[in-house]
Give the backbone structure.
Amino acid sequence: MTQTAVPTRPNPLKLNPLQLKTLVLFQELARHPETATRLDSGEVFLSRLPTPHGNHFHVGHKVALSKDATGLANRAVWTVLERKGLIKSSFPLAVTVTPDGLAYDSGIADSILHGSDH
């Protein structure tokens, strides 16, 4: 009898919506050399977090709404993400995204990251 793999479900750590949105933003920033430094450990150091202009801001080559980024300035969100092993916090200046954080399936990336028109 062969056993089929059970597909992983999004958000296995049951992060709340604000925590998920913040992690998605960190993951996207980690993909771009303008905002990320890859470390030998497999982690990605982010020292340049985006600042909104108007109702949106740029995250690499994508755009996100400012309302989806309130977790970037929320110490409690960073604390939970760190406790769950997804980041190493240097709140509010910098963050290191762990390999688990980079690989985490939020299930919401497509709903908060949009293609840039400028």
Notes: The chain has four helices and seven strands. Strands lie at 36-38, 44-46, 56-59, 62-65, 87-90, 94-97, 114-115.
